[in-house]
Design brief:
The protein is of the alpha+beta class. It has 3 helices and 7 strands. It has a single domain, classed as Nucleoside Triphosphate Pyrophosphohydrolase. Strands 1, 2, 3, 4, 5, 6 and 7 form a 7-stranded mixed β-sheet that branches. A hairpin with a 2-residue loop joins strand 1 and strand 2 (15-20). The longest helix has 13 residues, at 46-58.
């Protein structure tokens, strides 16, 4: 299976975990609100990719069985997978920001979809999930 990366809409209780992207001119959407996830490494599956990236970025180890919804879609650099996981609100106590990103926060998912600093194609995928 060919794909370029994977993202996770990670709900802690009713809220969405988001990461403020680094403010660097050499990355897409600098300073925008991002979701955990990133590029594929080696021959990993979409699930392995998104769970590895989530662990690296916010220090949360999510079981693959907790990925409750998924969809692939096309971007200029290839296929991207979008996953959803709902976790208990108290998992927030275990969140620690990794080496990428300025900060993290919880955000109402509808607010994320409307936020001018949400990565547009992630907001679109989340909107599709919420309106299914």
């Amino acid at each position: 299976m060919s794909f370029s990366g994977a993202k996770l809409a990670l709900f802690l209780g009713a809220e969405l975990l988001v990461i403020k992207r680094d403010d660097k001119s050499d990355i897409p959407y600098p300073g925008f609100w991002d979701l955990p996830g990133g590029g594929r490494e080696n021959e990993e599956s979409p699930e392995d990719c998104v769970l590895r990236e989530t662990l690296e970025e916010v220090s949360l180890s999510i079981p693959v069985s907790d990925l409750t919804w998924s969809k692939s879609y096309q971007r200029p650099r290839g296929t991207v997978w979008f996953f959803v996981s709902h976790q208990p609100a108290d998992l927030v106590k275990q969140v620690e920001l990794g080496a990428e990103g300025q900060c993290w926060r919880l955000m109402d998912p509808q607010d994320y979809c409307r936020d001018t600093l949400a990565v547009p194609h992630f907001a679109e995928q989340l909107r599709g999930y919420l309106n299914r």
